[in-house]
Structures are given as structure tokens and as C-alpha cells.
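__Record contents__

***
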Amino acid sequence: MPRWKKITLTTFIVLTLLACFGPFLVPVPPLEGTVPESALADPDSKFIEVNDVTVHYKEQGNGETTFILLHGFGASVFSWREVMGDFATRGRVIAYDRPAFGLTERPMPETWTTDPYGMDANIELLRGLMDTLGIERAVLVGNSAGGAVSTAFALRYPERVEALVLVDPGLGGGRGPQFPSWALPLMRTPQMRHIGPLLVRDIAVDGDETILRAWSDSSKVTEQIFDGYHKPLRADNWDRALYELTFAPPYPELRPLAANLTVPTFIIAGQDDKLIRSWYFEAIAAEIPGAQLVLLPQCGHVPHEECPDAFLASVFQYLDSHP
């Protein structure tokens, strides 16, 4: 064999071995001080089994109207603390943690039969939650990525949705996917699943910057708010679950499908949103049949937290005009 062929073959073998076994040589120390989700529960926390996932939720109020609140990426039921009681004055209100967040169970690949972190699984989890709790129809209030889940659910099950309230929603179309499609099989390999938690643990360190950017006036972010967002990072396997979420089964881009919505839709957003710019909300409002849009001045990505009074006034005004 010519010398150049030997060198090429040797190089290929070495690189292949490094790719196959190198990641397993990277030390991934276990998280310290984590506990089961139930150990972090609040006095008003509830847990329910839905589609083989133990879901954490909170519930207040009663009445003919049911509101279901869906939080954004990196958030939890904690994000609805300023408005949940006000929604409860108008009916039954339920806020729940989506898989990979809050205190909802974080199933691992070795235990599941269906990946619980993808959009399709999120849609069916919401349907299962409504069925289990005896809810026929509801007003869905979804913030950011929770707005995407709400929209996808309304497209599949419009008969179960009384109205959509999309709070600074991210429906795609503003930028490309987080990872190219060719990279997804690579991320699902045992090698990448081994080192994946290291890639997401920086959230525990750098996530505070994103929290600050979610507010128009970051001086309003108190230590208590930081503590509320940090709390789920004490749950077992939070890092592994978040890694699984990043490459969960893909779903069709929602923005082109939004024109097919048939339920009343209200978009409310912070005019000073630094994570998703206001022109995006204006664009999707024009694309959704009959949608109404309100931009709240001096509010950021989480107006239900930063500007709860203005947020509630606008939402209730819309709902009162669409009985």
C-alpha cells in the first residue's frame, strides 16, 4: 500500500475512534444538591399523572370559564404569580409546568416509550391534562414558547379552545431553527447525550442575563424573582432534560400555519421586548385572521410579570368584548 494511503487510513481510523470514544472520556460530574421535584413543591402545588408524565400544576378559582396558563422557555408556574389570582376572579385558572421545566417530572430516554419533550408531545399533554381535569374548553394564555404550544394546540383541537391569548409569542419565522436538521441525529447519539449536560449547565450561571433582558426595566428584577427562576435548577436531571428538549422531535413551522387559526386570538406584548422585537408581533397579528394586538409601553417580554395591571386590563377588555 502506498505511504499516502497508509497515512490517510491511519488518520481516518484515529479520527473515528476519537469520535466514537472521545466524548466518553470527558468527565461529567453529577449535579450536587439536587432533589426530586416533589421535594421542591409549594404548599399549593398539585401533581397529576398525564401521558406517563407527572405534571406539576397550581389551581385557583371556579366558574364556567377555565383559563390555562402556559409559561415560556426557562420559566414555570412561578411566572404567573402576579396575575393568577386575578384570573381566578373570573373562573377556574390552572397553570402547569411543561416537561423540562418547573417541577414537572423529567423523564429520561432510558425510561420513556415516547419522547415527552417535542411539540407534538406537548400538544397531547395539554389535551390529556384537560381530559383528566374534566375541562372541555379553555382560554389558553401562553407566553413566548408557551404561546407556540397554545397555537399548535388550537390548530389541532380548535373545538377545545375558547380563545387564544398570546403573550409575546414566538411562532417561528423570525429566525432559523436552533440546530440544522442534519445535526439532530448527531445530538441523539450516546456520545453527545453523555456530554450534553455540560453544554446546558451554563444556564445556571448565565441565565440571569436572559432574565434581566426579559424586563424592560431590569431594576424591577428582585432577588426573590431570581430565586423563583432558580428553584427548578435544584431538581434532579434538570440539565439532562433541558438537553433532550433542545433536539426533541421537530414540528412544522407554526407561523405559516397561523393563518389557519379559527379561534378568537388576542396578542399582547411588551413594546420594549428585547428578546422578540415588536415588529414581529405586528407581522403575525396581520397574518392571523381577526387577531387583535396590543403593545404595552414600558414592558418587556413578560408583561404579566413586569406590568401585571396593564396586562390584565387589556386581556379582560378583550375577553369582555368576545363573550
